[in-house]
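Curious: why this fold?
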Amino acid sequence: MSLTYIYQKDCLKGEYLKVFDKVELYANVHGIGDDAKNDALLNLIDMLSVAQSKDEGTEKIVGNLDKKKKLKLRG
């Protein structure tokens, strides 16, 4: 099992880390394969790191996760 993204997520702070943790939890709960999960989460770390350095919000990258969660629970 390759979890190299774990060593790189330390660069994320605040809302960026919170979004990463939500996406990681989703990937784990839905049984996404290790290689695919690792690649996707490394890409997400890159995108969130850039957004964090530019002080941009996370919604440009992942949308509004809280709103999506509410919609899924209703329907």
